Amino acid sequence: MSIDDDIFEALGSKAAEIEGLSDEAYAAVVEVLRGSAKPNAEKIAASLRVSVVGDAL
Amino acid sequence: MIKLQRLVIEEFRGIRKLEVELDEKSFVVHGPNGSGKSGVVDAIGFALTGTIARLTGPGSAGLTVLRHGPHVHKRDDPAEAKVALTFKDVASGQVGTVTQTVKAANQPILAPDTPELRAALEWAGGHPELALSRREIIKLILTEASKRADEVQALLQLDRIAEQRKALNSARNKLSQAANSAASQTSSARQAVLTHFGQTTFVPTSLLAVVNGHRETLGLAAIAQLESATDMSAGVEAQASETPFDKQSALRDVAALLEWLGDTSDRGPLVTQLVDACRTYTDNPLLPDAAQHRSLVATGLALLGDGTSCPRCDIPWESPEALRAHLEEKIAASQASAQLLAAVVHAAEQLQEPLRQGAALIERCHLLAQARGETEVASALLSSRDNVIEIGRGLANPQGALLLADQLDAGELSSVDAVTTASRALDEAVKAQPDNSAQAQARSALVVGADRWKAFQQYRSSEEQAQKVSKVGVALYEAYCAAADGILEDLYAKVETRFSAFYRQINEGDELSFKAELTPSSEKLDLAVDFYSLGMFPPGAYHSEGHQDGMGICLYLALVERLLDADFTFAVLDDVVTSVDMNHRRQFCELLKTEFPDVQFIITTHDKIWAKQMVSAGLVTRRQGLEFHDWTVAAGPAAEHGKDYWDKIDEDLQADDVPGAASRLRRALEAELPEIAEVLGARVAYRGGARYDMGEYKTGVDGRHNDLLKKAADTASSWNDAAASATVKDLHSARTKAIAGLEESWAVNLQVHHNAWAQMSKQDFAPVVASFQRYLQLFQCGNDDRGSWIRVEGSPGHETALRCDCGSYQLNLKKKSG
Question: Which of B40, B340, B398, B727 has its CA 20 to 30 A from that of B818?
Fold first, then answer.
């Protein structure tokens, strides 16, 4: 397992305890973080907004 | 993960044509400097990545793979420069060959082109850390903490973690800013409601009393409780002839703006504070430099001993105290710089809130002017609002705040003449409007108030959501940091432990208490190492260059082991252990053999003896070697595969080149007899300047060998070990024959180094070669791949064994007690 894998495994259990963070939003954030060498902060913020506020915003 | 089987190089770098059978085994390439060894390293790297590391990075300006990758004679024909590397994908067991030409670099041709082989090739190409030079490895040791962090992060590909952390932090800040902005909008909307109803503070009962007063005027039922969904204007009938205009409310809006313009008690001191902070920071040009050089100066301070020269640049100082004081002054300056910049940021943040309030007040008056048809006033207010918003944006980052210092100092915020003039004109225009009738006043108050109440509720709802999102952003960022820090701490602890163990192993009997401490902190990675139990110091403080080299390779191995784990199947080490001294090389080979038995190491060295030691220590077999020599521009290097000097002497004799064979035999004996004397602990009569001839070594070796065999015979007898006695007897018999063979040869009696050898015929010299070959075989086991010398274990007078490295030759020298 890579260091990246180790970190996201540890993060997964911590993220599950974050109130207001849906599984879908977390998965979207992880996809952004791991999908690019330079992850896009705006995409992460947008995923979190959807998680809490919904698609309306 | 791959292992390398075969390498074919054509017209590449300094090599014209070369085929190397690597056979998935460790391999050593040796030859003097400038003989073309690094061409092999470059070729492997090129086959896997399509680039040549040596032609990229610092100091490579003007160098390109296309122009400088081919052999110099083929520089205009890059298609001729090619490398073919046959490799095995360890996971699938498939074997393929990747071919790259310099002309079409990065367009590898893979045969067969299977998904497994392509994935394996891409994996290897993504791990440049598998081929490093001494220069790159020593950077792990001898560098400042911040640079070491960069090097280690690059090696472990931790830059991904830094980028992920950065993205999450940026997202967190964006969400936090959005929440703050939403809070500010809520505050402004609340203030708009209060101003409209002539209230100064938000007390729901007071507000409701004013609302119900207007409703009573219109004969409407009172509202019992003010809630977020309350419609203050419920029941109000729209009057076709009326546009909602509450003259009193409008006057209060204008009055609020005029008051904000005239009263600078909230923002005035903040402007002064910000301008002062910016001035202090920018007026001293040394402060920004001090911040940038802080880590460099801190390293210099840590390395400072009792000497009077700077440890970084060797400039002499009058005293260590003066140099220390100078560096401490620079550290203090960098701390002051960081504090001042923090003060700028803090002041800028504080100033943003009153600016947001002002922008909201101006906006309300702008809408009022627009509604009343006061176009010039509306335009002036709009321009002013945009200016205030722009300043607020500029203050959101330190550099923007520093750039705004002059503008703010010139009174940009206090220069309110234009806005004040526009506001007063609006005030006059509103006052000129006829007073509403009581009922019209009540209707307007409720309709406008209801709109503002609704807007306030929407802003409040948005703010609540923004605050929730912001909290999630903070929690996720903190969770990531905790997860990453935990993993990295564990990683560094493991690396630290393995690094220390590796280093102790190669310095066996020397630094048994050695330990290392890797301490990550923000952007730095400190490394401290034990020095003979006298304390923890930077690695360059007291350890020799050879020890530092050893540390470099040990830290590299510990890091790559952690990074790749079972995927660590091959590594190319380009002259990485140059400075490791003779005594530690055997342990280094043992380290690679015992800790990394499944890793294929491709090692280059300019040291022929070191290459031979790798063979004798069993790190590589005799066949897994390539010697470069006599490089010329026209022909490239002359390369010889896995041959020893007996093969070459035989070739010389086959070619009737007796002088060549004689020279080679003499050089071989000159190299081998001292080494045999050393491993057996033979006594050689002392000579100043260590000028011994072959006869002196041979006499010492013969005597010692005889003594050891006698001791082995006595030992076997003491243990009643018949098998061991028979073995010793056989060895003794072989010894007698070999030495007799030498003594009987008239040619050998000429003296082993005698020039007369070169004058002999092939028939006369061949028996000399055979005699010496039999003689040297006395000191070797029968393992042809190893060719290692037998060596004595224990201390002089207390020898415990006579054995070879592979264990096939083993004589007990420890007699049964009693």
Answer: B727
pLDDT digit string, tens, across residues B365-409: 999 999 888 998 899 899 888 888 888 888 887 788 888 887 777
Give the CB-side neighbour count of residue B792, counting CA atoms within 13 A: 26
pTM over 0.80? The answer is no
For residue A51, give the nearest of B167, B472, B479 by CB distance: B472
Residue bearing tokens 């920004």: B288
| Residue A45 pLDDT exceeds 90 | yes
Q: Which residues of B touch A41 (CB under 8 A)?
A: 166-168, 170-171, 174
Kindly report the nearest CA distance between residue A4 and chain B, in angstroms: 7
Are the C-beta atoms of B141 and B555 separated by less than 8 Å?
Answer: yes
In this complex, do A52 and B472 lie within 8 Å of one another by their Cβ atoms? yes
A56 CB near a chain B CB, below 8 Å? no
CA–CA separation, B319 and B550 (whole Å): 33
Residue B160 in contact with partner chain A when CB distance is under 8 A: yes
**Environment class of B124 (CB within 10 Å of its CB; exposed 0-12, middle 13-18, buried 19+):** buried
Angle (nearest 5°) at CA B657 between B654 and B661 = 90
Query: What would the two tokens of residue B77 be?
Result: 């024909």
> Which of B303-307, B431-435, B762-766, B807-811 is predicted with the least confidence, judged by mean pLDDT?
B303-307
A28 touches chain B (CB under 8 A): no
Interface residue A5 vs chain B (CB under 8 A): no
Interval B30-56: pLDDT, tens: 888 888 888 899 999 899 988 887 777
Is A53 an 8 Å CB contact of chain B? Answer: yes
- B160 and A37 within 8 Å at the Cβ level: the answer is yes
CA-to-CA dists, residue B734 to B672, B714, B740, angstroms = 20, 18, 10
Q: How far apart are the first and last CA of chain B?
A: 57
Burial of residue B384 (CB within 10 Å: 0-12, 13-18, 19+) is buried
Q: How far, CA to CA in Å, does B74 sit from each of B42, B52, B81, B812?
A: 17, 17, 7, 60
Strands B636-641 and B791-795: unpaired
pLDDT-derived band of residue B444, with 50, 70 and 90 as boundaries?
A: confident
CA atoms within 13 A on the CB side of B543: 30
- The two tokens of residue B227 are 């809630």
Interface of A with B in 31-50 (CB under 8 A): 32-34, 37-42, 44-45, 48-49
**Do the strands B570-574 and B600-605 form a parallel or antiparallel pair, or are they unpaired?**
parallel
Nearest to B677 by CA among B693, B701, B707, B694: B701
Of the partner residues B164, B178, B488, the one whose CB lies closest to the CB of residue A33: B164
From B730's Cα to the closest Cα of chain A, the distance in A is 55
Name the nearest CA neighbour of A18 among B482, B223, B100, B160. B482
Whether residues A45 and B175 touch (CB distance < 8 A) is answered with yes
**β-pairing verdict for B109-111 and B131-133:** unpaired
Complex prediction ipTM: 0.95
- B87 forms beta bridges with B4, B96
pLDDT in tens, B736-794: 999 888 776 655 544 545 567 777 788 888 888 898 889 999 998 877 666 678 889 88
Q: Please give the Cα distance from B650 to B766 (Å, whole number).
A: 9
How many other β-carbons are positioned within 10 Å of the β-carbon of residue B460? 18
> If you compute the radius of gyration of chain A from its CA atoms, what whole number of angstroms results?
12
Q: What is the mean pLDDT of chain B?
A: 84
Q: Which two structure tokens, joined as six digits, stand for B408? A: 């703010």
Helix (H, G, I), strand (E, B) or coil at A32: helix
Distance CA B422, CA B258 (A): 10
Question: What is the spatial distance between Cα A44 and Cα A25, in angstroms, rounded to a whole number?
Answer: 9
Q: DSSP letter at B75?
A: T
